[in-house]
Amino acid sequence: MLDYEEELKKFKPSLEVEDIEDAVYQENLSDMTDLLREVMDQTTK
User: pLDDT category, 6, cuts 50, 70, 90?
Assistant: First the structure.
């Protein structure tokens, strides 16, 4: 049986995940709300 506490102690995040996380936070990404606002603005013009 797995000892989850021991497994969690061994866990180390992948460097690639950290790199991706930094890149995502630096980007100005549109979310669904931004896209819906843009569509609504285009339809009201």
Answer: very high
Write down the pTM of the prediction. 0.36
Cα torsion angle, 30, 35, 37, 39, sign: positive
Query: What single letter denotes the amino acid at residue 28?
Result: N
**pLDDT tens-digit readout, 8-44:** 999 987 778 778 877 777 777 778 888 898 999 999 8
The rounded Cα 38 to chain-centroid distance in angstroms is 22
Task: Give the Cα separation of 31 and 45 in Å (integer).
Answer: 22
Residues 6+ apart with CB under 8 A from 38: 30
